[in-house]
Specification:
Elements lengths: L8 H11 L11 E6 L6 H12 L13 E3 L9 H7 L13 H12 L6 E7 L4 E9 L5 E6 L10 H5 L3 E6 L2 H14 L4 H22 L5 E4 L3
Parallel strand pairs: 1-5, 1-6, 2-5, 6-7
Antiparallel strand pairs: 3-4
Length: 226
């Protein structure tokens, strides 16, 4: 899996941790940490490493429980049957193929401390569909890391979700590097070169350029050359 910062992912993690609000691991309300960036920029990799780094701390009243967990935007993909009915299947992964309002509602619910576990959906890449209640945010989690392409998109449909983020990170990767990673991804899934190129050029890079060109400024921007 590609790292968001090719030179050293640990440098990216250190910069994020150093930039977080000082009460990130001790606040009574959950901190929602958002990681945005184009497809194949390394969002899920950074989220996973950050989760491990943060889990060295403790939240008030958490006992021995973990501090951080992940609830990603990809769980809010519309099902293929919905996309087929709307004629959107070829553009799966574009902003309009997600339930942006449902995602915002999840973030709102997660921001509040709770004595109850909160079930969240997870996108299964092998099945190419979202599995409802496939993960759980426990009461002892005080940091929720969420990642996705469109968290900072300058678009009214994503404004509510964006407003739920307490801290945001953007991964800025050159288009040529994204193209290489995306091609490798599709080839790794078994697609022939011509189909991999079509998916990359006609959908993924269209979405990538939208994210790079129209995302609002984050709290922390990480460049591939950092």
């Amino acid at each position: 899996m590609a790292s968001p910062i090719p030179r050293d992912i640990e440098t990216a993690v250190e910069r994020v941790l150093a930039s977080l609000p000082p009460d990130a691991a001790t606040r009574e309300r959950r901190l929602i940490l958002g990681i945005a960036g184009p497809p194949a920029s390394g969002k899920s990799t950074l989220a996973a490493v950050l989760r491990e780094a943060l889990n060295g701390g403790r939240c008030p009243g958490s006992g021995e429980g973990e501090v951080a967990t992940i609830a990603a935007l990809d769980g809010f993909h519309f099902d293929d049957a919905v996309l087929d009915a709307r004629g959107h299947r070829p553009r799966k992964g574009a902003p309009f193929t997600f339930d942006a309002a449902g995602y915002a509602a999840m973030l709102e619910r997660l921001a509040e401390p709770s004595r109850e576990a909160v079930a969240v959906p997870v996108f299964d890449r092998d099945l190419e569909l979202s599995r409802a209640a496939a993960a759980v945010v426990e009461p002892h989690h005080c940091v929720v890391i969420t990642e996705g392409n469109y968290l900072l998109l300058d678009d009214d449909r994503w404004r509510e979700a964006r407003s739920r983020l307490h801290f945001s990170v953007f991964l800025d990767v050159p288009v040529d590097e994204l193209r290489r990673r995306l091609m490798d991804r599709w080839l790794g899934h078994g697609f022939p070169p011509a189909e991999a190129k079509r998916k990359t050029e006609e959908n993924d890079l269209v979405n990538a350029r939208l994210v790079l060109d129209t995302s609002l400024e984050p709290d922390l921007r990480l460049h591939a050359s950092d």
